[in-house]
Specification:
heterodimer, A: 119 residues, mainly alpha, two-stranded antiparallel sheet, globular, B: 273 residues, 2 domains, two-stranded antiparallel ribbon, 9 helices, 2% strand
Chain lengths: 119, 273
Amino acid sequence: MRRKAGSLVPLEVSILGAALELRSRGINEAHGFLLAKHIREGRRARRLTAYGTLYKALDRLERAGYLASRWEDPQLAADDGRPRRRHYRVTMAGEAAHAETIASERDEALPRSAAIQPS
Amino acid sequence: MTGSPAAGLVRAWVDLYTRGLPAELRAARCDEVADDLWCEQAEAATLGRSAGVDMALRLLFGMPADITWRLAQTRPMPAETLNRRSSMNSRALGLLALAAGVTWAVWLSAFVAIGAEIWSGGVAPWSIVAIFLGGIGFPLSAIGLAYQVQDRLGWLSALGAVMMVIGALVAMTDSTGAAPAILLLLFPLGSAILLWEVSGTGFVSRVVPIAQAATAVALSIAGVVGLPLDGGPAERATGALIFAPFVLSWIVLGVSVARGVPQPESAGRGSPA
């Protein structure tokens, strides 16, 4: 099924949420593994998000303008003896889209929870 | 740190599904996953456990997304959804293709009606002009379009352009039909190859090269079975029918390009900053 343009799927909401949460802790940029690790912890999941699912979602979020990315200085990676790293940060549009999705999810959940309240 | 069999499997898979993508896009995805693997192994080493099973599962569950992502990279964007920009060059190329296409369509209709007499009397100069307009106009507009997206085209486009030019030269100089049919076949075939490559960038519709390839295939079949394309009215009509998709494709291309050239997204997306 084709998705509505601009709509976020749960994983994308989680990615934006993880990036915003990390930012609140002073980590303004995060690479894919760090985001996946943060999502795993937030969901109390046993495993990290699959590679394909994670990087496809990151790609989509960046194309939508909700994330911006940059490649780190290759010298840093060389010094650490690891592959080069791509850092993502949430844009203002991403922050707004995340807030909007969370708010609409809350609005949808409220009537349902009200309906099951004992009268 | 990168030597586990599961990590090797992930790298091999990434290497496989990114094959044929632009080098920067491919390198970006390979490096990004390689860094993820490195981090995952580093974390597992810190915790004193193996990451192999998790890696294999992450690989397996992510494969459908990898495949759809890969398909999305190769699928050309529909020209109608792209931002069309008109420039003097694109308008000129479009009008050239349109003029040549319409001229050939008129010429083909006249050929079906009067046959070989089209090369004699007062009509002959018009026939020559018509054939030359297509022979020069079609390759010029196709190569002009290809030039605008040259950085996104490969050797196949160059081969198509060369084949097309040879075929066009044959079409312009061989009014008697003495040249081997294979040389004439190079015109629609080379053009179809070149414009197929150009259409891969979203610059023109895929319909254009497919229509041209249809003419090339029909021309080949006619050559193999020895079907005469001139002579009586029925043969001439068959010849016109074979060339109709080729001619119409230029009219479609001309109208589309004259309206403005779609601006494809930057190829550098996903590349290192």
